[in-house]
């Protein structure tokens, strides 16, 4: 039992944390009626995936990871380079998520101007009143 | 590496489009009228390039373009084979037709938003082209997000109810894209590469690995949201019905098809046929698609709003494509084996649905007619538009020799060969349902007269009230292509293109015994 715990939970704690955060975000997107809260959920969901990617690049505490700048001196001192690719990917993905969030917030502002509320149910009710 | 001129085109298609988007924004400051012209000419140039690319791919072979000269798998690679080139030509043709149509229609519908409209439209085309030409899976994710973001903005451009539709699409689309990203992360964690070809080489020893299986699950669900496959289609009806009509045509004709292309690419280029055959994924997909076909059609019958009806019809048409994809691994005939029916229907659906949505836009442009019950006597007021609608509608029903007929014929033959007779029944039932909901519209346009006319019991000379020529030509072009391509498919002239795709993935008659 303890062995299983160590192997499946503690050794892979980064994955468990990112999955937990992801599900928190997912829950917020599904359960919350407030559009801003939904977007916060979306943001948490995306961030969890970013954390997952970043933790992939981690090489553990025993190896001394450093920035991937090629220099003979650092290699002789016993440093190991961290894979920079996940970080770069996530830099791109962060830009994408910021853009998504910006478009989404713009939509929410326009909806607030149009309907005077950002509660999903009230918006649906007002739509019904308009006869759609 | 010295490249011929045509081999530079894959990257130019994307770059020219991206630069043009910002040029339009700046030019729009100086002169609003230049926007349409810039957008039109850019897409025309892109289309010419894509035709050259298709020709090059068919005659010489696959194009590999290394961005910045970095060799894959380190650098990003653009790979264009028969599948990309074919989808690229369809995409840009429909984009060109929609932009021609939008000149008058956008000036009428969104007079204050002309500059942003064309800027975002050009970004949409950039994103779509990017997804199609790229050979790098992370690059594909970025382009998927570019076209999705442009699509959200374009759907919302009409304001009011469209905002809610766009928001729903945004939330669901983002979840889909995040799943896609997570799938990429899983594959990267086991292989350490993002290049699709490299992945397909490194993955086979890992096919039993749970991470690889989970990644496939994430790809499938993520892209199913983007392509509105049946149980995940909930964003589609609102988004399609409240967007400006040319965007509805693009959404239905190309955007969900490009997502399907991404799915086909992931299934056959990243994973391979051998992986698909290990698991009963495609059998499951066939059943989901069949359910989608029936339920989409039934829901379409229940709609009174024409664009909403067409949107539900898209759900059922996506079912056709996915059914054909699902059958692709179990058919071996030279004509209808492999991906041929699926790719054929991608083109056919773009033609038919493009035409139908543009006609729906024409009715809105002329008289704000949204509901089918308002179409009484339109057949005489707008004879050419209604004729185009009828041509596209009978294509959807599947009257020979239209494109719809050929698609249905090939899918039925494929399901017969696969020995799944239930799908033949599904196709026939769906034809019947198509007939019900399209005939209703045709009947309303031609066989009912307006109330006023009924009272007088006379036939007054019909006062024609056609849409402007710049809107009529795209509509009529698409409608006539519905028939021309139907005949072309029947003569089997374009089949060799699709045959090359099968050869590429080892499907159809190229399948290993």
Structure characterization notes:
- The complex is a heterodimer of chains A (132) and B (513).
- With 132 residues, chain A is mainly alpha-helical.
- Chain A has a single domain, classed as Helix Hairpins (Orthogonal Bundle), CATH 1.10.287.3510.
- Chain A is built from 6 helices and 2 strands.
- The radius of gyration of chain B is 22 Å and the shape is globular.
- Chain B has 513 residues and is mostly helical.
- Chain B has 21 helices and 2 strands.
- The two termini of chain B are 38 Å apart.
- Chain B has helices spanning 5-30, 34-59, 82-109, 114-133, 137-156, 161-191, 196-202, 210-226, 236-242, 245-270, 273-278, 281-301, 306-327, 340-367, 378-381, 383-397, 403-418, 421-446, 451-456, 469-491, 495-505; strands at 63-66, 77-80.
- Chain B has a two-stranded antiparallel ribbon.
- Classes of the chains: A mainly alpha (132), B mainly alpha (513).
- At the A-B interface, α3, α5 and α6 of A face α5 and α6 of B.
Topology summary:
The complex is a heterodimer of chains A (132) and B (513).
Chain A: H1 2-10, H2 13-31, H3 35-56, E1 65-66, H4 72-76, E2 80-81, H5 85-115, H6 120-130
Parallel strand pairs in A: 1-2
Chain B: H1 5-30, H2 34-59, E1 63-66, E2 77-80, H3 82-109, H4 114-133, H5 137-156, H6 161-191, H7 196-202, H8 210-226, H9 236-242, H10 245-270, H11 273-278, H12 281-301, H13 306-327, H14 340-367, H15 378-381, H16 383-397, H17 403-418, H18 421-446, H19 451-456, H20 469-491, H21 495-505
Antiparallel strand pairs in B: 1-2
Helix pairs in contact in B: 1-2, 1-4, 2-3, 2-4, 3-4, 3-10, 3-14, 3-20, 4-5, 5-6, 5-10, 6-8, 6-9, 8-10, 9-10, 9-13, 10-13, 10-14, 12-13, 12-18, 13-14, 13-17, 13-18, 14-16, 14-17, 14-20, 16-18, 16-20, 17-18, 17-20
